Amino acid sequence: MPVVSEFARQVYERGIEMGNDPHGFSVIGDCQNVTDFFLSAFDHPGQYDLGEYGYLQETIDHYTGSFSRKRIAVSGGFNVAAVLSPLWNNVEECDAHESPLACEYRINNPSVAIISMETWWYDRPADTYAGYLRQIVEYSIAEGVVPILATKADNLEGDWGINAAIVQVAQEYDVPLWNFWLAVQPLPGHGLQLDGFHLTYGRPFFSIEANMNTGWAMRNLTALQALDAVRRAVTGDEPAPSVGGEG
């Protein structure tokens, strides 16, 4: 789970002073972040079961409405370069000069953002990925949005270079890191389908053991845990209780 630095707290506090919504978060990413599979169930009682992680209900209540709202900077095929380019914006929602990232922040006004970019051009070096990710982080910080950087479960590039770049950028900017890669290591197939990219499917019913052996259930659980850890740290709330299944 993320370690939240004093710098991240300062970014959050400055964002609140700028008018960011303390009850709003955004998601920036590709097909692994679409609302059909990722987090939206938490806006709908009956579509999830926290099981032993009942303490997370406080964070669900805190961010109610953010889990299932439209994500302007999420789309299949998006990568760290695409979310920075106005060529990829939603013409119905965004100004012509806006990138999807800028449009998402303007419209949804978050205080926190999960940034999870798995898709990349695999013939391009991880250093190039890191350069674009730095731009996303710097823009987020300038807007007073605390970025939570997520590692990815797959290794399609073959050398783990992208995850290494994500960790490096998180350390450089002293921002929270959600290590999703670590969370799926104990799962069958490390939570991946045979294609080595897509996650195995399971609904967010965390009291069902079979679900907890799937990539999607673990993704939803640990993303919610990451949001919970960041929320508690930046608002000065009590730390979460210690339970099993931590990412």
Give a structural overview:
With 247 residues, the protein is of the alpha/beta class. The protein has one domain (6-235): SGNH hydrolase (Rossmann fold, 3-Layer(aba) Sandwich). The protein has helices at residues 6-18, 57-62, 100-108, 126-142, 161-173, 180-184, 215-235, and strands spanning 21-29, 110-116, 146-150, 177-178. A four-stranded parallel sheet has the order 1-2-3-4, with helices on both faces. Helix 4 (126-142) links the parallel strand 2 (110-116) and strand 3 (146-150). Helix 4 packs parallel to helix 5 (161-173). The chain starts with 5 loop residues before the first helix and ends in a 12-residue tail after the last helix. The mean pLDDT is 93.
Short account of what is shown:
This protein has 247 residues and is an alpha/beta fold. Helix content is 34%, strand content 9%.
Helices and strands, with pairings:
Blueprint (H helix, E strand, L loop, with lengths): L5 H13 L2 E9 L27 H6 L37 H9 L1 E7 L9 H17 L3 E5 L10 H13 L3 E2 L1 H5 L30 H21 L12
Parallel strand pairs: 1-2, 2-3, 3-4
Helix pairs in contact: 4-5
